Predict the structure.
Amino acid sequence: MKQKTHELWIRFSDNLRRFILKKVKNEDLADDLLQETFIRIHAKIDSLRDDTKVQSWVYQIARNIINDYYRKSNPQLVSEVPETIEQEAESDEAMTETIRDMVLFMEELPQPDCQALCQIEFEGISIKEFAVKTDISYTAAK
């Protein structure tokens, strides 16, 4: 169980912290809520039944932690917070599905095409840089 929590920390902590920081706009508070999120993840790790939904599960825990924070700190905001968080949950779920579809598509690509796509679209190198790096023409890289 401890190992699984550690793996989730490595996989999600940076992006999860950015997600929390966008909601609370305070670095120290984001760190505290991130820590609380992983304490809850550790406590509930045995309740995760479907490993394919781990990202949604982790982010839902973070949303609940954020919601709890707002509920405790400012009861007047409670009516506004769940709607915003629920909309983001739907957006995150759609993004997860999009990423899953993209990964399936990329697995079917020939290796050189997949490499080009990954480096240009995800790593942010230019087409020209990719052409130079792989020793192909700019036209071929396009």
Remarks:
- Residues 9 and 63 are 16 Å apart (CA to CA).
